[in-house]
Structures are given as C-alpha cells and as structure tokens.
Amino acid sequence: MAIAVKNFYNNGSVYWSSLHNLKLSYKASHLESLNVSAVRNVYNHKGTVQYKFSLKDSDLTKIKTAPGIDLRPVQFQVQPWQADETCFVRNTGKGVLRGTQSMTVLLGCPPSMKIEFDPEASVNTSGKNQFCNKKYGIACFLYEHTFHPVFNIVDESTGSMTRFTEKYHLAIIGGGKDIYSIEEYTESDVALFNYQTHGSTSTLIWTPKAKNLGSIPSFNISNNGLQWLCGRKSPCSEISPVFPHSPEFYFKLEFSTRDTEDDNLNCDLTAQFIIRIHGLPLGSLYPATVIVATCMAFITAYVFTMYAFKRNNHKLWNLTRDFVHTKKMMGEIWIRQKIGRAKVEPAIETSVEDCDTDGRKGVL
C-alpha cells in the first residue's frame, strides 16, 4: 500500500523544509494482530512525501485455514500531521482522498491463494534425462531416478507466483495403468500404499530419500526426494509393457500443508496432480512367462514340422528319387554325346519259316 502526502502553503509555494517535517501516523483496532512496516520517501521536485506500508498477519492464533475461510477483520487508519488541510492519499489510482484514511484489513489465508505443481521445474531439478516426453500433457519421470516435486504458490488477485518453500505432506491417492483407468484409492489403501514406518514394505509405492522425516514425512524445498519402490503387493507391481514402450504407471498425488508444524504459513493449501512413471521393473513373473512362451512356441513348431514330414514321407521320397534318377540319366546322355561314344544296340536278325501244304518247312 502506497500513500502520498503533499503540503502547500496559502500562497501556493512549497517549502522544502516542511516536507521533512511532515509525518504520517497509523493505528489499528488490533495492532498485536498486524506486523506493520513503512518506507518513507521524500520527492522535493514534486513536493511529495510517500509512505509505503506493508501489512502482515502476525498469526497469533496459529490456526491454518483454507483460502478465504474464517477471515478476521481489523481496522487500519492513517493520519497525516504537521501538514495543512491539503493532504491527500492516492490509492489504486482512483480519485483523491483527503485527511484521515481508514480501511479494513482481513487477516487469515487470502482467498486468492492457491498451490500449483510445477512439472517443468520438477523434471529439471534432478538434472538427469528422464528418457520420455509429456503424454496427455502429463509430466513423465523415470522409475530409477529420485522424484523431486516442485510447487509454486500463486496469488490470483495480483498474478504473482513464487516458489513454495514451506513444509508439506504428499500422498498417493489414486493410480492406473493408463490415463483413462485411474481410480481413487480408499482410505485403507492410501494408508497401505504410502510410506509408513511400521508394517510390511511389500505394499509401499514409495519411500522418502531422507529417512529422518518422521512417520509422516514433512517435505520442503531442500528436502523433497522420493524414491519409487512398487512393492510386490502394490498396484504398480508386475506391470506388463506395451510394445515398444517400457512398463509405465499413472499416479494421482495430493499435496497438503494441513497438520504441518510450520509457523510461517497460515494457509491450509491442498492440490492434486497426476504424473507418469515409466521404466518400472518387470518383476519375476514376466521374464518367466516370456521364457515359457518362447520354449512352447519352438516345441510346437518342431512337433508340427516332424508330423508333416512323417505324413508325406513316401510322397516326398518318391519325388526325390525320381528327380535324382532323371537328372542322372540326362547327365550320362549329355556326356556320351559330347565324347562320341554313344552306344547303338545291333539289330536283332529274324527268320521267317514257310510251311508248304504238305508239312515241309522252307526257309525264305
């Protein structure tokens, strides 16, 4: 908030020494609830003294509320002194207000505040190649790499966006093999699939990289690493790949600042987002299935081939024998013709006997 105070004397001239004496006081209905700071600037060439006030909730209640819920009003008032009657305040460029100015300040979590997952920063934070691209506009991460989520806090009233650095919790609340099969997990499933310090690890989907974050890990910007486990009883275990891609799984996560021990934040912020994890381990079942299926295919092909040969064995043998014999005869004739030794078989002499009518034989 900026307030400008200008001082004139009756003849219209400005006395520069009077600008340095001009002051601005303030008061609040609950001053203990506000942290007030001010910056004073004197502009002699304009005959103006500018005050920039910064108001911040002292958060004495230590209660986190959702944006715009249970706001507490506090009256704040400013009053120039050691100035004549021409003092005024400029606020948002609308009109000119003279003298004392009052306003109502709402304490609590601003209704315009919200949290957003930053996929680009999350991909780049690890400094490693994730070996995949966005799909359906959803960020993709490699199973073997540590996941470092990054969040921004956005003020929709001003459009400002800053990196969120306070404490928060993360939980996986849903998942599926593709974007269209994502289902919400029940409360009992959420308790089983998310990190816990007791019970079996076979149902866990993830674990914090740092092991000193408590039973319910509280992450922050400098300690936000997650490592994927996909235990054998978790929903992301034994995922079959779809050729030519590696096994992948979609997770729905929830961000929350509720129940975090943080004195610098009075907002109960929540956000849900979806990520895609690829390169999941195949597990023990899939390689065994591939080996068995390959062996069965070879055995089936061998049996079928042998059966076909046995059924047509005599036909194949006769055809092969006739083919070889024909080729052999044709080769011999061709060779004999070339060397002029083709054999000609002698004609067989025949005799004809004539018998006369009286039974005597005659030779012709």
UniProtKB/TrEMBL annotation:
CATSPERG C-terminal domain: residues covered: 137-304
InterPro entries associated with the record: CATSPERG, CATSPERG_C
GO CC, any one term: sperm principal piece
Pfam family, one: CATSPERG_C
Protein name in the entry: Cation channel sperm-associated subunit gamma 2-like
Native organism taxonomy: Eukaryota, Metazoa, Cnidaria, Anthozoa, Octocorallia
